[in-house]
Amino acid sequence: MEENKKAVVLLSGGLDSSICLYKAIEDGYVPYALCFDYGQRHVKEVECSRRIAEKAGAIFKKIKIDLRQIGGSALTDDIEVPMGRKMEEIARDIPPTYVPARNTIFLSVALSFAEVVDAETIYMGANMIDNPGYPDTTAIYIKAYQELINVAIKKTIKGGKIEIKTPLIRMTKKEIVEEAVRLKVPLELTWSCYLGEEEPCGQCDACRLRAKGFQEAGLTDSLCHKSGSDV
Predict the structure, then answer these.
(1) pLDDT of residue 224
(2) Backbone angles phi, psi at 152, to 5 degrees
(3) To which CATH superfamily is domain 6-224 assigned?
(4) Residue range 197-222, pLDDT digits in tens
(5) What pTM did the predictor assign?
(6) pLDDT at position 100, please?
(7) Which pLDDT does position 3 carry in this prediction?
């Protein structure tokens, strides 16, 4: 195995991105955990990211980008977060919690950071199975962005390589939860809820998808105990 190979991991503090951090470590990379304070509805996830990175022994980097100046999302604007939606509703449309071009912005910053620290991989927790409404979490999007990377920076046009890895992209939430358990991700430190209250609301799309995964895996998630069983 190549020594000291590096990876930048987009770490939001949620379940999917935390798995990617632990997967990068399992794959033998020195992990750089990149977290964004982007003007989201709450910054609790930023602190969760820091704690998870510290627990994993990763190098933590927080970058501030104020997407509230753009708005257009329930996470960055005065738009109501949907509550209590059924799974078929969640899967049907692009939700109000979609942040315009967020993953393109995040990947671009991650690419810049990866080139500076000489990382060869960017890990991203994109998933297109249980929550297909987001256009920037699909396999076709990742493929297109990879093609951009190949011609966009000094490193790649001079023969180097930076690869996007999305190990969860075709996993169900059940499989994602099982992978988190296998990798010994500190689930108690993760945060999925769109609200930044003391406890998860249990009713936003993120809480309900998380509850679905734990329920189907036959496991108890003490963090999301408010979520109903009618997922």
Answers:
(1) 61
(2) -100, -20
(3) HUPs (3.40.50.620)
(4) 889 999 999 999 999 999 999 999 97
(5) 0.93
(6) 95
(7) 65
**pLDDT on residue 228:** 47
**Residue from 5, 4, 9 nearest 109 by CA:** 9
**Which residue in 185, 197, 176 sits closest to 128, CA to CA?**
176
- What whole-number distance in Å separates Cα of residue 104 and Cα of residue 147? 13
Those residues of the chain that have pLDDT short of 50 are: 1, 226-231
Report yes or no: 119 and 7 within 8 Å, Cβ to Cβ.
yes
Lookup: tokens for 73: 């999302």
Task: Give the model's pLDDT for residue 93.
Answer: 83
Cα–Cα dist 105/66, whole Å: 11
All structural domains of the chain with their residue ranges: 6-224
Cβ–Cβ < 8 Å for 169, 127: yes
Question: Which segments of 117-230 are extended strands (E)?
Answer: 121-123, 163-165
Print burial letters for 15-53: b (CB count within 10 Å at least 16), e (below 16).
Answer: bbbbbbbbbbbeeebbbbbbbbebbbbebbbbbbbbbbb
**In 107-143, which positions are buried (b, 16+ CB within 10 angstroms) versus exposed (e)?**
bebbbebbbeeebbbbbbbbbbbbbebbebbbeebbe
d(CA 49, CA 220): 22
C-alpha distances (whole Å) from 110 to each of 31, 140, 205, 209 are 13, 19, 26, 26
Structural tokens at position 216: 């189907």
